What does this fold into?
Amino acid sequence: PYPHAGQHQELNAQFLVERGAAIRISNADLERALLPTITRVLNAPEELQKMRAAMRALAAPDAAKKIARLIQSVAAC
It folds into this structure.
């Protein structure tokens, strides 16, 4: 998460990490940790599959359309 964007990026990242859908690397550790982390995950297909499944479970298909419909219905009231 970008450290100067307020707390929301940190909270979003933590949400995904807690559900097994992501790996968090702090901005301070990015240069040192990014390549080894990518290499480790790509060499662990079971871990990558678990992360993929966790991310799919969190998906909200058509979220933008649902939000637009909700806004339209509220505006119509």
About this structure: Residues 25 and 34 are 7 Å apart (CA to CA). Residues 45-58 form the longest helix (14 residues). The two ends are 39 Å apart (CA to CA). DSSP finds four helices and no strands in the chain.
